[in-house]
What we know:
With 337 residues, the chain is of the alpha/beta class.
Amino acid sequence: MIIVMKKSATEDEINNVLQKIKDAGLAVHVSKGKERTIVGAIGDEALLGSIPLKAIGGVEKVMPILKPYKLVGRELKNTDTIIDAGGVKIGGNEVVVMAGPCSVESRESILESARNVSASGARILRGGAFKPRTSPYSFQGLGVEGLKYMAEARKETGLPVISELMDPRDLDVLCEYVDIIQIGARNMQNFRLLKELGRVDKPVLLKRGLSATIKELLMSAEYIAANGNDKIILCERGIRTFETATRNTLDLSAVPVLKAESHLPVIIDPSHAVGFWQYVGPVSRAAIAVGADGLLIEVHPDPENAFSDGAQSLKPGKFASLIEELRPIAAVLGKTI
Length: 337
Ligand code: PEP
Ligand code: MN
């Protein structure tokens, strides 16, 4: 339920409304605008049935929230959310490029990658330490050791780091070392994992599931927000279709749709979408043109010998020239890279 307070509403009147909602067993979300305060009552609206909200002092009008994603939708908050990830702002005027290898492979290689991508203009370093591999016989990641190397790379380059969480048992150690927690496509609907993320004060990058609809992605984001963490970045990384020429099919239209439905930042991962380095540049250009707030790109110093996803990884030189190509596209939209 959305309760719009009158311009003249006093703090006491606002607090009174908040208390009544809490007493009824619902959670509250307060949005203080320049003109007026809007209160969201989140939970089972039937519990509010007996409270004459409209008759309470200071209340101007009461409306239902029509969308099922209440906290991440635009009905309750219509201003774009900007998320601070280790000092880098995502969702504002800068298109934030996150780059690095698919997996952290060794201390030396991640440090080298960090120096490379930083020099080319990336603002965040990516690298998987816990890898969701299709085969149990494939490289599974260096685990906590990999996270420590990421933290060392941050110390040397100043780049905040992002790495994937697969298991709630690793959440605390991830929080110790990384600036953004990535939830991979395969875990987008791992609801226990999403609920756990609610209890931490770390930005979460939530990837769209392999066969998930936009609504399902938003409902997964709602799980995280409803459990207490509203620092969420949405990521389109391609969905599974009948097409086999690319690894997945990049749904570019997800960007304007997500931006219309939600106030959260939206980024695109062109690498996992297309699966081949040759196509990463063209779809990155399109991603910026369509309004993405950032990109997550796989870059590897020696893709031929990468432990994972070499075929879709750009060499550092190609990555550097791609960033230069992207800058004027961002500029047309009044953004920087
Ligand atoms: C990754 O970013 O390395 C990854 C595994 O991505 P996704 O979850 O999109 O497949
Ligand atoms: Mn990968």
